[in-house]
């Protein structure tokens, strides 16, 4: 069979990444737009791999009772697959069942990649997995739409503006963006006349929408004396691209509010996209710190991949005004903001560095007294989607902190890193997962670990 062929398949399970599992003559087929228990007609979209194929639903033959009209009409099954925008891959599923499926993906990842044969069995009854009821906790159950305060759209060579189609770089023009705030959607409708590239729309706590234009790189002019010049041995040089000037709006400092605290952040810098995510995760971190026995004000604590200091502030608040906490972030502008945001704590500082390099230097150069303070402290990490990775986890374990708080945005990456932590003597006390991205497959999870001894 080849791309474009149609198949009728029975959907048996959900998989990581917002896809669903079927089989055809023994081969796994990952299907988008389905629900476990359904029989669907699909169009094959990728048959190049021997281990599995990919496909999109084009017709539902036997629907799940959990199916509903897609929350985003442009992405509905009635629309040809190539014309469906990405970003709402669970939008056709009833909300409670969305969370059930996400919980299943997380638990299976913990078993398969984290080595937890029964994740619930590794936790005490007083420190339950996935919240008190064993389910993913929704940040705001009534807010299934209009939660995105940050949206990235793309501009193609024809000037079309919109999101990409799922798993492609094809721009889809769509009249509505139901997951975005209504203010962002209104601004998007007025956009026109932009060069190819990307447009970011950001709505911070003040409610005003910023439009950040990020033109695509352009080819550099050819070298003098020839179309592209010559390198060593007379070999043609590869054409270079020139980065377009940065939109100054991206460097504008905006204020985000979490509870009664304000955080400065670049308009184009990283901040959680759900309007309630920062406060929800801050609360989860505080719960995790309580589960770990609190924050020792005499110890030294680390906030790795620290951004603008959101979680470092939670650490410092829990420990008191003299708490020693170091926030480590590779982005220099974010570190500048972290220094401002943490200024009220005399023991807080922000360093610009890669996490692995910072930890390597600390392990090599830290004094005995410094290592002792770290061993009584908390290491909090909020790595990117790929996770911290084995090397960083092993560096953290070598510091032997009293506890570790891990904020994760990918269940498989989390499970792999937890497997490494467990191999080095740390066990999870509590895992709380949050459905901060309704109608998508994404989740956030906050895990607290302690030394097994």
Structure, briefly:
With 453 residues, this protein is of the alpha/beta class. It contains 9 helices and 22 strands.
What is the share of helical residues?
Answer: 10-25%
Structural class by helix and strand composition: alpha/beta
What fraction of the residues are assigned to beta strands by DSSP? Answer: 25-35%
Dominant shape: globular
Q: In total, how many beta strands?
A: 22
Our measurement of the CA-to-CA distance between the termini, rounded to an integer number of angstroms, reads 56 Å
Sheet of most strands: 8 strands, mixed
Which value, in Å, is the CA radius of gyration? 24 Å
User: If strands are numbered along the chain, what order do they take across the biggest sheet?
Assistant: 7-21-22-20-19-16-17-18
- Mean pLDDT figure: 90
Continuous helix count: 9
Can you tell me about this structure?
- Helix 6 packs parallel to helix 8.
- This protein has an eight-stranded mixed beta sheet with strand order 7-21-22-20-19-16-17-18, sandwiched between helices. It has a six-stranded mixed beta sheet with strand order 1-5-6-4-3-2.
- About 5% of the residues have low confidence.
- It is built from nine helices and 22 strands.
- Strand 5 and strand 6 form a beta hairpin.
- The protein has 453 residues and is of the alpha/beta class.
- 42% of the residues are buried.
- The longest helix is centred in the first third of the chain and has 18 residues.
């Amino acid at each position: 069979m080849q791309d474009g062929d149609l198949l009728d398949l029975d959907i048996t399970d959900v998989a990581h990444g917002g896809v669903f599992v079927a089989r055809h003559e023994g081969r796994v087929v990952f299907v988008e737009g389905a629900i476990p228990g359904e029989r669907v007609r699909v169009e094959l979209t990728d048959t190049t791999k021997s281990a599995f194929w990919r496909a999109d639903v084009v017709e539902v033959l036997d629907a799940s009772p959990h199916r509903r009209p897609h929350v985003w009409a442009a992405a509905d099954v009635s629309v040809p697959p190539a014309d469906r925008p990405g970003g709402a891959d669970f939008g056709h599923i009833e909300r409670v069942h969305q969370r059930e499926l996400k919980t299943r993906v997380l638990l299976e990842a913990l078993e398969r990649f984290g080595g937890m044969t029964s994740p619930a069995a590794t936790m005490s009854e007083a420190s339950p997995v996935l919240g008190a009821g064993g389910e993913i906790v929704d940040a705001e159950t009534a807010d299934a739409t209009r939660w995105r305060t940050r949206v990235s759209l793309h501009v193609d060579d024809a000037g079309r503006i919109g999101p990409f189609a799922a798993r492609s770089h094809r721009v889809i023009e769509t009249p509505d963006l139901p997951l975005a705030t209504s203010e962002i959607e209104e601004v998007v409708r007025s956009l026109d006349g932009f060069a190819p590239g990307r447009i970011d729309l950001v709505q911070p706590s003040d409610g005003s929408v910023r439009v950040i234009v990020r033109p695509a790189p352009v080819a550099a002019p050819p070298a003098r004396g020839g179309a592209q010049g010559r390198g060593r041995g007379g070999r043609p040089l590869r054409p270079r691209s020139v980065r377009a000037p940065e939109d100054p709006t991206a460097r504008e400092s905006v204020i985000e509010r979490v509870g009664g605290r304000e955080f400065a952040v670049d308009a184009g810098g990283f901040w959680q996209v759900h309007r309630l995510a920062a406060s929800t995760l801050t609360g989860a971190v505080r719960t995790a710190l309580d589960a770990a026995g609190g924050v020792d004000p005499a110890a030294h604590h680390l906030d790795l991949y620290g951004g603008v200091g959101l979680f470092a502030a939670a650490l410092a608040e829990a420990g008191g005004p003299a708490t020693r906490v170091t926030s480590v972030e590779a982005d220099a502008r974010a570190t500048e903001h972290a220094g401002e945001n943490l200024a009220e704590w005399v023991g807080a500082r922000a360093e610009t560095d890669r996490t692995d390099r910072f930890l390597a230097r600390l392990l090599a150069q830290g004094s005995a007294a410094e290592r002792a303070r770290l061993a009584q402290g908390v290491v909090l990490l909020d790595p990117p989607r790929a996770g911290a990775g084995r090397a960083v986890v092993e560096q953290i374990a070598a510091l032997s902190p009293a506890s570790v708080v891990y904020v994760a945005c990918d269940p498989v990456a989390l499970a792999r890193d937890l497997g490494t932590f467990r191999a080095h003597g740390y066990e999870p006390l509590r895992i709380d997962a949050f459905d901060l991205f309704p109608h998508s497959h994404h989740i956030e999870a906050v895990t607290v670990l302690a030394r097994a001894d």
